[in-house]
Fold:
Amino acid sequence: MKDFREFLLRGNLVDMAVGIVIGVAFAALVTALVTDLITPLIAAIGGKPSFDDLSFTINGSHFLYGAFINALISFLVIAAAVFFLVVKPVNALMARRRTEPPVDEQTHQCPECLSEIPVLARRCAFCTTEVAPA
Structure:
């Protein structure tokens, strides 16, 4: 029982559970946004009040491509929201908080053939031109 309790109370498991719950709530919010606001706007331009009614039938099989359009729009809005509200700000924050010094260049260009050669090389491996170490 002790091992099971330790497993449940590990930090990364709790963090993951919180992330999943927040993700599900965010998906529900974006789905409502798409269903209630964006889809009617797009449908008003196209003349249809809702994409859910769009379908066709072939040999008795009913294809609901309107529901697919709603799901596609929802996916695109979720992807855009995650990219612009999570990925971009986190990347900008990480770039500002970078603490390691810039890495010294390990290569430079050969003056003759413009290929990348090691900084300490005395001869280009591609065109065999003698070069001074940088």
